[in-house]
Amino acid sequence: MGTADSSPVLELKDVWLRIPVNTREVRTLKKALIRSLTGGVLQRTTRGTEIEALRGINCTINHGERVALIGHNGAGKSTFLRLVSGIYTATSGLFRAHCPVFPMIQKNFITGPDLSGMQAVKGHYLLTHGHLKGFPEYLREIVEFSELGDFIHLPMKGYSEGMSARLLFSLLTSGSHDCLALDEGFGTGDARFFERAQRRLEQFIETAGTLILASHSDGLLQQFCQRGLVFNQGEIVFDGPLDDSLRYYHEQCC
Fold first, then answer.
1. Does residue 246 carry a pLDDT above 50?
2. Which residues is 70 bridged to in the sheet?
C-alpha cells in the first residue's frame, strides 16, 4: 500500500463544472430526475438550462493517499472521478493534476465492437506503454486470466457480455498506476470469474501510488481508504478521516 507524503497529486481550487442542457425535453423533466442522471443542481440562466454538476470544489490529494468518495447516487462522486481523470474539463476554477490519473470507471471506454480481442489488447498496450516491446508475454497473461482462448482473435461484437467484461477487466488491472480513479460499479464478468477477479482487483489497488475510490460499501472503503470526501449536490460537504466521514454521511446525508 502506498505511503502518503506532502507532495500533491491533485489540486482543485473553487472548481465548478457546469453542463448545458439544450434539449426541449428538459422542459418536461422533473428536477429530481435530471439530478439523478448527472448529479448536482439544476439552474436556469440567461444562457439556458445548466446542471451545476460540481460546485466550488476545494481539495488537495497528496501522493500515496487512499481517498474514499462518499455520497448517494447523483451526489457528484462519479463526476469528480471523470473530472480528475480528464474526461470532463472544469468550467471554472483551478485544477492541476501532477501525474496521469488512470480511470477505471466505465465498462467500454477503451474498446469497440468492431475490434478483435487481440486488437483491443494491442491498442491498450500501446496506449499505456508507447511501444510493443514485451507484448507477446503480456498477451499470454491477458488471454490466460480472461480465459478467452482462441476467441481473442475474433471480433468483440460476437462476445457475450461476460467475455467482454472478463477481457476488459483483465486489461485494466494489468500493470500499476501512479494514481487510480476507481468506481465500484465497474463490472468483473460472470459469477464464476468473480472470486479470481476480486483477488486480482485487491492486488491491483494495493500497487496504486494514489487511490480515489467511489463506493456505497462502507466495508470496501474501510478496506482500502483512510480519508473520506462526502459529496452532496455536487459539493464536498465533509473532508476528514474515513470513520469520521462515514459517520457524517450516515448522520447528516441519509
1. yes
2. 230
Share of the chain above pLDDT 70, in %: 81
Q: CA 205, CA 184: separation in Å to the nearest integer?
A: 12
Q: Are 208 and 108 in contact (CB under 8 A)?
A: no
Enter the C-alpha cell of residue 29.
423533466
Residue 167: name the closest of 117, 125, 127 by CA. 117
At 69, the amino acid letter reads: L
More confident residue, 252 or 10: 10
pLDDT at 199 (0 to 100): 86
Distance, in Å, from the CA atom of 77 to the CA atom of 69, rounded to the nearest integer, reads: 6
Give the confidence band of 14 by pLDDT, cuts at 50, 70, 90.
very high
* pTM of the full structure: 0.80
Tell whether the model's pLDDT for residue 44 goes beyond 80.
no
Percentage helix, strand, coil for the chain under 3-state DSSP, each rounded to 5: 40, 30, 30
The cell 497529486 sits on which residue?
Answer: 9
Distance (Å, rounded) from C-alpha 59 to C-alpha 77? Answer: 13
> What is the per-residue pLDDT across 122-164, written as a single tens digit (0 to 9) for each?
988 988 888 999 999 999 999 999 999 999 999 988 988 788 8
Q: What is the per-residue burial (b if ≥16 Cβ within 10 Å, else e) of 196-217?
A: ebeebbeebbeebbbbbbbbee
Smallest CA-to-CA distance from 52 within 24, 75, 23 is with 75
CB-count burial class (<10 Å; 0-12, 13-18, 19+) for 101: buried
